[in-house]
Amino acid sequence: MIDWWTSLSLFSKILWSITLASSLIFVIQSVLTFIGADTDGAISDFDMNMDDVPSGDGANLYTFRNLVVFCLGFGWTAILLGPQIGSTGLLMVISAVCGIGLVVAVMYIFKFLSNMQQSGTINVFKSAVGCYGTAYLKIPEGRSGEGKVQISINDSVREYNAMTDGEEIPTGAPVTVVEVLDANTLLVERQNSIII
Question: pLDDT tens for residues 132-168?
Fold first, then answer.
């Protein structure tokens, strides 16, 4: 191993160092991403904030991840094609094109994967008004106290604190959301069931 390393030219040593370092960092980033440790502020998603450069579709081109991916594609292409291509300039151009192509491919893969995830978070201020549900705990009259309701928002049953402006609403009574008072409290009114 030492004989192989000492036999390399300075250019080859630099190329191998960049390629092996970027490969190791890429493997670490990938493992962290798939186990869920790749969050905002993690080293694998370090962004260089460049306000005057348009990022397009929310994907920032200037990230640490993309630098690593570029070095990975550039380095391995140069190492693999080096013996077949005699011109260093042509080798650098081909390697740079492959590095950029790999960056674009990885960006599209991560964009596709991020579009598949669902947050599960419901914006109660936008979604709750007009929804139907039932009183889970009785709701005192005239906003004199809080009860609880279970309502269906976006095909998901959620429980919220509830108040009413009208008469007391007993447990099990059907209700309609009239207003969102805060993120955890709804103003509801009792639905009158009509029997024919």
Answer: 889 988 999 988 989 999 888 777 788 889 999 989 9
Q: Which two tokens stand for residue 74?
A: 């550039």
d(CA 15, CA 22): 11
CA-angle at 57, arms to 33 and 69, nearest 5°: 40
Helix (H) or strand (E) holding 70: helix 64-81
CB 177 within 8 A of CB 171: no
| CA 72 – CA 187 distance, rounded (Å) | 57
Instruction: Write down the architecture of domain 124-190 according to CATH.
Output: Beta Barrel (2.40)
Rounded to two decimals, the pTM is 0.49
> Residue 71 and residue 85: Cα distance in Å, rounded?
19
Neighbours of 84 (CB within 10 A): 7
Q: Which amino acid is at 170?
A: P
The secondary structure of 100-124 as a DSSP string is HHHHHHHHHHHHHHHHH-------H
Length, in residues, of the chain: 196
Residue with tokens 């005192």: 140
Helix or strand or coil: residue 53?
A: coil
Residues near 47 by Cβ (< 8 Å), separated by ≥ 6? 60, 62, 63, 64
Task: Please state the domain extents for the chain.
Answer: 2-116, 124-190
